[in-house]
Automatic annotation (TrEMBL), chains A, B:
Taxonomic superkingdom: Eukaryota
Region annotation (Disordered) ranges: 69-99
Family of this protein: Belongs to the class-I aminoacyl-tRNA synthetase family.
Top EC group: ligase
GO biological process assignments: tryptophanyl-tRNA aminoacylation
Pfam families: tRNA-synt_1b, WHEP-TRS
Protein name: Tryptophan--tRNA ligase, cytoplasmic
Originating species: Hemibagrus wyckioides
Classification via NCBIfam families: trpS (TIGR00233)
Catalytic activity, EC: 6.1.1.2
Any GO MF annotation of the entry: tryptophan-tRNA ligase activity
UniProt keywords, alphabetically: Aminoacyl-tRNA synthetase, ATP-binding, Ligase, Nucleotide-binding, Phosphoprotein, Protein biosynthesis
GO cellular component: cytoplasm
Length: 481, 481
């Protein structure tokens, strides 16, 4: 959000004020809103006209000054005044929002930069050690290896936990297709670990309404995907006595408390705000515009009276991929204004596509990742054919110069799924030195993933419709606060 | 609302701008809002500080320039610049939308003009006669007297009805307070008649969520008003076996089908559309922006599977005041795109305030109308004291020139509530001729309203919480299609 300021040297004795591009831009934003307000209010024609006249004058002057057309969505790229004060537009930034993740670097998104941009905190060694001490467990490999790398308010959560004040977990998934890939498991594998070591209840939101609003799918399709995805989530081993999984299309219509929280949130968020956070435009449907409140609502324990006996004061912890943070920045902004605690968060990095870390995977491209339905043979073929290699072109060169694990997708996947730290470190060294060849590295990944996926498929087979229904039935969960 | 303008002589080649007191005042208003927005958004401290700094500078300068303290509530007394371009003249059109109804004519809104503007059809004698023929009943006085004056697709509804294809009724109320006045009864009195003569089921929506979003009220207050208003609605004599009354805050959370239709509608309406229809702005909350879909949903029979056995093809007829038409223009636009029949409508005129037909009544001003809780004495006093009279100043003049029933509120009220056509016509003639004095006319209205209100209060007393619960329980209704 930008504001317009008067240059220090500008003389306030008269009202003359020389505006910088950034100041002009801020003024244009305000005056633009002003014109919209007047029109919607059906104000006097004269009033509207003079407001519009000023707007046009400012625009033409803005163009004179910057050589650019005024565009509310993007501030002036060159700003003399702000060069020494504060964040203007950073070029070459990675793009990260709930619908787009892109970077130009083969190593992937610059996560330290994201922490600064999003204003979250780094999960540092001290926090990792503290979690280990409190849970008396070895911190999960996702923590040890910086895969969950960023957080909000975790120390506060742990302070309370040490004082016997527990919390509940909330994570979710957008069921855009039946097929889930290994990357989709990351938040669930970690959430399952958190549920075990902290012994806390968990709610899992399946946003089938969101997928209906965003994709060219019917409600029936989205709901079916939700149920199918629920099976893969359950197969991660969640405790049925501590876990509630719900489809929005079902749960909204079965819980007055959930809807009441959604409306409460919707009353406290303006279109200007969601426009700024999510980049919605006037031609987006009103369903998209109001949806963020639906993803926000499960952060508040009052949305689940059957689980929390109507208590609205319980702390929520949300493990999710960093691209979901905008939803929860909004939620944390609203929370105090509706009298609820702000949810805490733990953010994960993205799981790279087989083709490389430049992009997030798409469930639509079967070769972009390993799917939970792949056969051992498919896993082997995909990795050998598609996994981007950090190795050299010839064995000779590789032996001589070594490979680059930082851009090697097979090695990246091993950091996610190979539990043994020492072995992983040895692989890194041998690959870098050239002692380990790309083929051998891939073989090692194949031998790690094949049994893991097979075991998942085995567990998933055991999950009957009855089991799914148990998890998806609103009910009391087994825990004590 | 004021805006700041640049003096013609101000040179746009540089950004130097000399502000008049009025321009400074407008700038202060905008910047004041800006600061509030930043604070509520918990923006960076630096951002807020510089916005506040500018605000203070502007204030001190405003004082220098005007010798007055800036006060958002009152503009500067002297404004040179705006003297030559003052507020433009009204374009004469009546303003009619769900939140504002205003006209300059003492006879009230020009309804023929509205029909043209809204693109609806006039309820003409032919349609009235046809309704009489089909129902074998004398058309209701609201039809005979042009109180329900406009419609959409009524002939289609009647064609189907004659071919044994029935329909269902949908009307509603925004429960903004416990107090309802006689004007609020108009749609319900007429709907009750339609239910009787056509023998059809009815759904009544109480938009307590809307009132929560628009007013400074809690959800609990709005819900309580909904239940209280339900009692007055039930007291109109609706058949419990054919009528379902629901609060949005309750029903949304108890009916997945209702929510699914809401989302379906929300997917097919853009912000541009609701902006055009309802005049929403970017600073409106996302709850308001998506609400129209919630008022639209009951137009579709699929929103009530328990009543209509899951059928989605049943025709809906909506009796409502004309100011609600924008919601249903939107609904009729969406219907074919989601595969549902367009609802038909019958529009009523507005019930005039005691003070005159220029405005709609406000439940907040106790003297603007007769309330359903008024005692016989209060009714008498209000009418004698506040009912705008079309009579002459002195008895002599009145006898000589006669009164004007077209602007006389007591006479208007009689057209709503006096059943006897001949007697009403005689009153009109005698009042116009001067034979009937204002006092006598008012007496006649008092004698009509006192027993009517007393009887309503008597029926309302009989309505227990159990009865309310019966009406508000989702259930099968008694009818056949």
């Amino acid at each position: 959000m930008l504001v317009f300021k008067l240059r220090r040297r500008s003389n306030m004795a008269d009202t003359a004020c020389t505006l910088t591009p950034m100041e002009l831009y801020g003024m244009l934003n305000l005056q633009g809103d002003q014109v919209r307000v007047l029109k919607s209010k059906k104000a006097d024609k004269a009033e509207i006209d003079s407001a519009v006249q000023l707007l046009l004058k400012l625009k033409s002057h803005y163009k004179k000054k910057t050589g650019q057309e005024y565009n509310a969505a993007c501030p002036p790229t060159e700003d003399v005044s702000s060069s020494n004060n504060g964040p203007a537009v950073e070029d070459g930034d990675d793009q990260v929002d709930p619908w787009n993740v892109s970077t130009s670097s083969a190593k992937g998104v610059d996560y330290d930069k994201l922490i600064v941009r999003f204003g979250s905190s780094k999960i540092d060694q001290e926090l990792i050690d503290r979690i280990g001490r409190i849970t008396e467990q070895t911190p999960h490999r996702f923590l040890r290896r910086g895969i969950f790398f960023s957080h909000r308010d975790m120390h506060q959560v742990l302070d309370a936990y040490e004082n016997k004040k527990s919390f509940f977990l909330y994570t979710g998934r957008g069921p855009s297709s039946e097929a889930m890939h290994v990357g989709h498991l990351i938040p669930f594998i970690f959430t399952k670990w958190l549920q075990d070591v902290f012994n806390v209840p968990l709610v899992v939101q399946l946003t089938d309404d969101e997928k209906y609003l965003w994709k060219d799918l019917t409600q029936e399709q989205c709901h079916r995907f939700a149920v199918e995805n629920a099976k893969d989530i359950i197969a991660c081993g969640f405790d049925v006595n501590k876990t509630f999984i719900f489809s929005d299309l079902d749960y909204m219509g079965t819980s007055p408390s959930f809807y009441r929280n959604v409306v409460k949130i919707q009353k406290h968020v303006t279109f200007n705000q969601v426009k700024g956070i999510f980049g919605f435009t006037d031609s987006d449907c009103i369903g998209k515009i109001s949806f963020p409140a639906i993803q926000a609502a499960p952060s508040f324990s009052g949305s689940f009276p059957q689980i929390f006996n109507g208590r609205t004061d319980l702390q929520c912890l949300i493990p999710c991929a960093i691209d979901q943070d905008p939803y929860f920045r909004m939620t944390r902004d609203v929370a105090p204004r509706v009298g609820y605690p702000k949810p805490a968060l733990m953010h994960s990095t993205f799981f790279p596509a087989l083709q490389g870390a430049q992009t997030k995977m798409s469930a639509s491209d079967p070769n972009s990742s390993i799917f939970l339905t792949d056969t051992p043979k498919q896993i082997k073929t995909k990795i050998n054919k598609h996994a981007f290699s950090g190795g050299k072109d010839t064995i000779e060169e590789h032996r001589k110069y070594g490979g680059n694990p930082d851009v090697d997708v097979s090695f990246m996947y091993l950091t996610f799924f190979l539990e043994d730290d020492e072995r992983l470190e040895k692989i890194r060294q041998d690959y870098s030195s050239g002692a380990l060849l790309t083929g051998e590295l891939k073989k090692c990944l194949i031998e790690t993933l094949q049994p893991m996926i097979a075991a998942h498929q085995e567990r998933r087979k055991q999950i009957t419709d009855d089991v799914v229904e148990q998890f998806m039935t609103p009910r009391k969960l087994d825990f004590s606060f």
